[in-house]
Amino acid sequence: MKNKKDNTTLLQIKDLKIEGFSDERWHKIIKGVNLQLKRGEVLGLIGESGAGKSTLGLAAMGYTQPGCRITGGQINFDGVDLSKRTDSEKRKYWGNRMTYVAQSAAASFNPAHRLINQTTESTIRAGLKKQSEAFDEARALYDALNLPNPETIGERYPHQVSGGQLQRIMTAMAMSPNPDLIVFDEPTTALDVTTQVEVLAAMRDIVKTYGTAAIYITHDLSVVAQMADRIKVLRYGEEVEEAVTRKMLKSPKEDYTKSLWSVRSIQKPEKKSKDIILEVKNVDAFYGSFHVLKNINIKLPLGRTVALVGESGSGKSTVARVITGLLEPKIGSVKFKNRELPPSLKGRTKDQLQKVQMIYQMADVAMNPKQTVYDIISRPASFFAGLTGANLRKRVIELLEQIDLDESFIDRYPSELSGGQKQRICIARALAANPEVVICDEVTSALDQIVQEGILKLLGRLQKDLNLSYIFITHDIATVKAISDEVVVMNEGEVVEQGLKSEIFSPPHPEYTELLLSSVPEMDPDWLTDLLKARSY
Amino acid sequence: MHPVIKTVLERLGLGLATLFFVSIIIFSAIEMLPGDFGQAILGQAALPETVAAFRQELGLDKPAYIRYFDWALGAIQGDLGTSFSGRNASGADRSAEVVDKIAPRLWNTLFLASMAALIAVPLSLILGILTALYRNSFFDRSVNTATLTTISFPEFFVAYILILFFASLNQIFPSLANVDPDTNFGERIYRTALPAFTLTLVIVAHMMRMTRAAIINLLASPYIQMAKLSGASQTEIILKHALPNAWAPIATVIAFNLAYLVVGVVVVEVVFVYPGVGQLMVDAVRTRDIPVVQGCALIFAVTYILLNLIADIIGIVTNPRLLHPK
User: What is the pTM of this model?
Assistant: First the structure.
């Protein structure tokens, strides 16, 4: 394949307007956006959820999701206005001259077909290559994307390879017809940081080699900084600003853009504490015969935050299950104020239950959708503190004030709340029990940056006011820096190291911590290049 | 051993265990039937000694568990015992082997069931796929309404309507489906046409709607959007991307309906005077011909278990996670 890069315009979107149908009416999703892309150029689209970046990315292919419609504007792709074409006309472009890489590779591959057949499906359908030729080229792409066993990995089914590998195979699938344009829709969001680095590098190399133009959609500025030549910031379906990557990172013009990396700016000074309120001692735990936790020792100082960091599968959420008694450890124990807690939830007294509360990642599913805010918060308040009637209502209002919401929220249902408000209600529910220890399991992972900042500040203030101790489970290093006093690094069910934040984040590091910390993308366009160079030595 | 073979063997084992329990239930249920065969045959006036002797001759005086094992061991070897009917007070014995009574009837039932299935299964799959393809269109709604209408009427009603239009007003098919072992194949098909159509109308809705729902359910999957964005046409998306992942629920519903074709067609048999197993069983219950009732019930149980086993196996072999383990 030859490099397609030259300076001609490939895609020009003019004053595009898209509406989506929900709640019995049409809502504006994209409100007149312009976009221009040259051959071989990579444009980063960034914004928070609801900014319309995915809708815009798909629209660049002339595709609208079911329930959406284009109400105005043009999508000129190589001289053809796709917004005026029928599906069967656009099908000639899809999977041929333009391809798509989706966020969740695991869900975006058909479980019933072999990977190589899916990789080459559109190439063969479009009649670009014969099957044997397409297969050979797919294997070459697998090799170029650093996949293990490139000759045979295509014979596997999607469930037989890992998430990071699937994401690279999807990139191979997008490259297979040698398209003019690839739309990457949050392709690394679902991956662990250490995996993300490899996938980013592979995607960047291959796009550069073939000179393919790309639109790279993400909410993560530091990721887009590695990939894009230019960055466009979107909010509420409108453009906020657009600039060349380096310029955008160095001097963003708009306040909104500046606020996008605000979480990274929170820096909490760490504090030591001698009093230990909770201790996990020599714990080994199993799921069936699978050894999830291996000799775990964690100490939680009173009034402080211990961050539990690790990638998916490292066992960090299982530690929370052991502490709350949802999973009985095989060996070892959990001590609260130097007294051993019964291993199982059933054996614990009301008082013991009250002291340790939990907040979850998905506020959406952690609340009963048929209960009002009052029902949700009042239940632990009446169960643990025995409040009733007017006292109970007073307490609920007090709790709402603590989380910066007012009385007007009391009769709302979860579906009438925003993502950040839902998480606040979950915090209030945990506080309603008057706990001393709160376990926060990825509580900000599903939230946008600005909302994250609000939640983290709230948790910090509550800690000060109520002298709470937090165990904060997260995979995000920026969040760790923003909230913790001490850090526990976990990998494959073991504690790699534990110590004050300043100790953990300053070298020398154990090998795994080094890998983890160095894999966190930085807001520097050269970060990935430098990292790969450093690692190749 | 390949895990699929292991799972299939496990299911087979479970099926046999189920059959064992069902046979116990069949046997005890019949034990609990009111009335006594001897008394019924010999009449109210019979002397108690005569009744006792008669019972002894039939083996009814032995304890229940011994009779169960005799019956179960025989059944395993293909011997379902001797029918009680054909005996009478005069002592003449014209009774027949249960197997000989059931076999020709079972053959008739299976013939009718196969005919109905051959029409209904492909028809429901095609309609299901087409309605999924043109969902919410006029075609989709008409097919849904039509199949729901036919399933909502009682079977005998559907049967009489068909007789009215296709046998009475227009004499295309016979209204009586009376066949005997000498009827040749073509004639058999001709005579069983109306009952087969009736059954088809009764079962199509269920299978067709399940096919439609199973496919539409998958159309919301990210991999379907991916297929669209790689240029696949609607037909290709449904046949190549949705259907291969939808077989498990479809197979279950098909198995359920096929089982119904074998065990639930008494009403249709009666309407068309078709000599099938259903009628045989009803007659046997009326005359307290216990071995025949047991034999029929056992065959019905085997049918259910076998068809569901096949549906399970289809579900397993169409699931790549089970077929191609990590």
Answer: 0.80
